Amino acid sequence: MRQQTTGIHHVTAFVRDAQATVDFYSGVLGLRLVKKTINFDAPEVYHLYFGNEGGSPGTIITFFPWPTSRQGRIGAGQVGITTYVIPVGTMDFWQERLEKLNVSATVATRFGETFLQASDPDGLRLEIVEREEGSLSRWSFGGVPADKAIKGFGGAVLFSSAPAKTAEVLERVMGLEPIANDGEFARFKASGDLGNVIDVNVEAMEPGIGGAGTVHHIAWRAKDDEDHARWRSLVEENQLHPTPIIDRQYFNAIYFREEGGILFEIATDPPGFARDEPADSIGERLMLPEWFEEHREQIEGLLPPIQVRVLEADRG
Q1: Can you tell me which residues the record assigns to a coiled coil (predicted)?
Q2: Cα 112–chain centre separation
Q3: CA 271, 277, 281, 286 torsion: positive or negative?
Q4: Could you tell me how far CA 68 lies from the centroid of its own chain?
Q5: Would you give the DSSP letter of residue 170?
Q6: The pLDDT of residue 2
Q7: Nearest to 10 by CA among 278, 269, 289
C-alpha cells in the first residue's frame, strides 16, 4: 500500500528571545503553550511548543530561543512561510487584531486565496488564510475567542534550491497530490484537513542562512510506530539517508534532507504532550526527560523566566 502522510506534524524554528516568542505566539496569535522543555542537546536553551488546546499534530510550532543566535536569512533550503488556517469569516478580526497590536501585515493572493502575511519578532514569515477544512479550536486566550482562533496549520510554502527534486519527494515519497501550478508556485495537497496544503517555488532560489527567524525543519505525520517504521524503510529505499529512529519524548522522529536542501522530519502522532503532565495544565511546568531530572535546579537557574500573559492591549 502506498505511504501517504496526512500533512504537517510540526514546524521547528530558531528565535532569540523566549519571552518575546511567548508574547507573540500566545499573546498575539492566541496559541496555547503546550510544552515547556529544553533542547536535549543544549539544556541551557528552552524548547517551547505552541498549538491548539491539546497540541494536536498539525497545530504545533516549536522554538529554540538562543539569545546569542545570529540573524538568519530566509531562502532556499527552508520553509519560507508557515501558513495558519482560521475559520471562514474571521479575516477581518485578524486584520484588526494585528493592527491593534502593531504587527505589520500585508495582503497577498496565491491560487485564488487571500493571505494575511506578517512576521514574528525575529522575522519568521507567517501567513493566515481562511478555509473550511479543520476542526475549530477549543482554546481561547487574551483577545482571541475560540470561535475566531487559529485552527492549526494550513500548510507551508517551501523554498527549494532544486524545486523539481523537492516536488518529486513530496509526490513520490510523502504521497502528496499535485493539484495546481501558477508558474511561480506548484501546489500539493495531503489527505488530512490541517497542515495539508504545500506550495513550492517553481524556479530555483538563492540559499537561505540558518539563524534566528528561520525554520530549522518541517515534520510530517506518521500514524504510529508501525507506520513510522514503514516510512523509514521507504525513505531509505529512495536513497534519502534517514537517521535512526530517535525518541523525542512526545513523538518518535526520523530526519532526512531532501535534494532541495530542506530538512524533513517524520514524527509519530502518539504519545503526545499529556504523557508526562495533566492535559488541563500542559505547558505550565518545565518538563525534563528523566536523565536531566537530577540537574533540574542547575538547568532552571540557567533558563530565563518566562510567563504566558495577556498583552496590555487585551486587558480591560
Answers
A1: none
A2: 24
A3: negative
A4: 22
A5: I
A6: 87
A7: 269
**Look-up of cell digits 491548539:** 52
User: What confidence category does residue 239 fall into, taking pLDDT thresholds of 50, 70 and 90?
Assistant: very high
Cell 506578517 found at:
118
Give the span between the Cα atoms of 80 and 218, in whole angstroms: 11
Q: Which of 109, 139, 100, 102 is nearest to 127 (CA)?
A: 109
DSSP letter for 186, please: E
Asked if residue 245 lies in contact with residue 291, where contact means CB atoms within 8 angstroms, the answer is: no
Cα atoms in the 13 Å half-sphere on the side-chain side of 7 = 25
Q: Which three cell numbers stand for residue 225?
A: 510506530
pLDDT digits (tens, 9 = 90+) for 148-205: 999 999 999 999 999 999 999 999 999 999 999 999 999 999 999 999 999 999 999 9
Provide the percentage of residues in the chain whose pLDDT is more than 70. 99
Q: CB–CB of 269/251 below 8 Å?
A: yes
Alpha helices in 101-224 (DSSP H): 163-168
Mean pLDDT of 24-34: 98
SS3 161: coil
CB 114 within 8 A of CB 89: no
The x, y and z cell numbers of residue 266, run together, are: 517524520
Take residue 126 and report the three cell numbers written for it.
507567517
**SS3 (DSSP) at 165:** helix
| The three three-digit cell numbers of residue 66, written as one number | 538562543
- Cell digits of residue 26: 500566545
